Amino acid sequence: MHGFVQLTASDIVSLYRPTPCSLRLYLRAHGVPEAEPSAFDEIIQSLGQVHEQKHLATLGAYEDIGLVGRDQRVSRTLEAIQSCVPLIYQAEFRQKFLINGTPVIVVGRSDFLIFDGDGYIIRDSKLSRNVDENHHEEIALQLQLYGWLFERAVGVPAKGLQVHTGAGDVVDVPYDGGAAALAKLEQVLALKQSTTEPYEPVGWSKCKAGCGYSDRCWSQAEARQDVSLVMDIDQGLARQLHSDGIATPQELLSAFDIQSLSELKRPWGTRQQKVGKKAESILANAEVLVSGKERILAPVVIPAHNNYVMFDLEGMPPYMDDLEKIYLWGVQVYGRNSGKFIGATSGFGTDGDREGWYAFLEAANGIFAEHGDIPFIHWHHYERTHIEMYLKRFGDPSGVADRVLRNVLDLLPITKNSIVLPLPSYSLKVVEEYVGFTRTQDEYGGSWAMAKFILATETEDQAERNSLMAEILTYDEEDLAATWAVFEWLRNK
Ligand code: SF4
After folding, report:
1. CB of 21 sitting under 6 A from ligand 1
2. How far is CA 102 from the centre of its chain?
């Protein structure tokens, strides 16, 4: 529509997914190319479609607005509403109006309009399991926008706004007359119209969690030596420093000592909070980043043993009707009497989750029988928390899991407490590269492995399933080898 800026519910989602960032929307709106969706993204998208279709099948006969020509969808939606069609699928609305004097056209396409006696309920199907005031604000905003579009087009508000969640629940979203969604559209419009790129700090978990601009933003941040590259600098602090004119780690070191940095206030949620105790580690991290040289803080404390078990789990977050699940329990003894890699995998039948857990307990039991109490070395707290979770889920009649819990040793805090590294993150993948470990696989990672596992779950072809599982097992085996490489490197410090 010439002269009108088009705004959609997807624009709002771009601000939040995969992680909150306004730069993503600016870059998309300005045609900056982004990376292709990963195999994991594509699988999640198709799971979302399956979830929506399954729900549609439970709702009875429907009219599919997506089947009519693009130009007639809005008018056909209104006709269907006026005729009280019991279920309207892919209803489409368009409204033209002004935002701060700029003509805009807002387009929204809701999954389901469900006639409920004396009005319509607007419902969208989502894979997210928790949708409330603390989770997935973008979903509530999307529904608010549909609610506002409906009210403008039909003349009366919808009877209700609802989300069909990934857990299969139907959750009500209170309608605020569209106020929050319209305020968000103002932000969307400002970003679309802006001629200068907004400042956004980079962050390892923010940018490396599936954002298509990760390589672009990260390399630009490195080229300009952005202060947000310093580990332990959170997003609020990076923004505060940037607005105070402190752009680089070098400028940070010149402007602050521990005392003054700890007193600096930065945005923290809806409040302002002092940097506090983090100041010391931030400045140490900035120093090693500038010098490029690691700094030893304290002796490395690792209990002396002849052998150690490297231990790593691969899991799926809860999705659709499934609970959170560990699908691979990887262990391997390294040291004087190294052993073979054991990857205990969950089965694909209804009892698969339990089978994986008991296969792991059996493997751990065998290791204890051969080596006695032996440290189970892992990276970060995921392994400990998930053993505790499975203990509650399936029990541990032989007491092996308790014994593993008594012997787990998290290498990440040991590393952080003893050495400062000139790196943007203490993720195992980053540290292993720093110590010179190389992998045989071109593609790997937690999301990659999850995508492979979902494909293995869905295929009926046994040969394909075996080949997918073999790739995941190689990845996990190399994770253990990487943990051992970091362990050895650290021990030699
Ligand atoms: S890479 Fe990071 S900073 Fe860049 S758009 Fe994505 S989330 Fe935002």
Report:
1. yes
2. 35
d(CA 63, CA 88): 5
Q: What is the DSSP string of 292-322?
A: ---EE-S-------SEEEEEEEEEE---TTP
How far, in Å, is the centroid of ligand 1 from the Cα of 200?
7
Question: Strand pairing of 170-173 and 160-164?
Answer: antiparallel
Q: Which atom of ligand 1 is nearest to the CA of 207?
A: 2
Cβ neighbours around 175 below 10 Å, total: 20
Cis preceding-peptide flag for 267 (omega within 30 of 0):
no
Whether 217 is in the pocket of ligand 1, judged by its Cβ within 6 Å, is yes
Give per-residue pLDDT as tens, 352-367.
Answer: 999 999 999 999 999 9
- The reply to whether ligand 1 has any atom less than 6 angstroms from the CB of 206 is yes
The pLDDT of residue 47 is 85
pLDDT digits over 34-63, tens only?
Answer: 999 988 888 888 889 999 999 999 999 999
Backbone torsions φ then ψ of 345, nearest 5 degrees: -110, 150
Domains identified in the chain and CATH numbers: 5-193 (3.90.320), 214-293 (no CATH), 307-491 (3.30.420)
Q: Does ligand 1 lie within 6 Å of residue 93's CB atom?
A: no
Q: How far is the CA of 213 from the centre of ligand 1 (A)?
A: 6
Give, for 221, the enclosing helix (H) or strand (E): helix 214-223
Residue 1 has pLDDT above 70, yes or no: no
Q: Which residue has the tokens 């994986």?
A: 356
CB 246 within 8 A of CB 54: no
Longest distance between any two alpha carbons in the chain, whole Å: 78
CB of 16 sitting under 6 A from ligand 1:
no
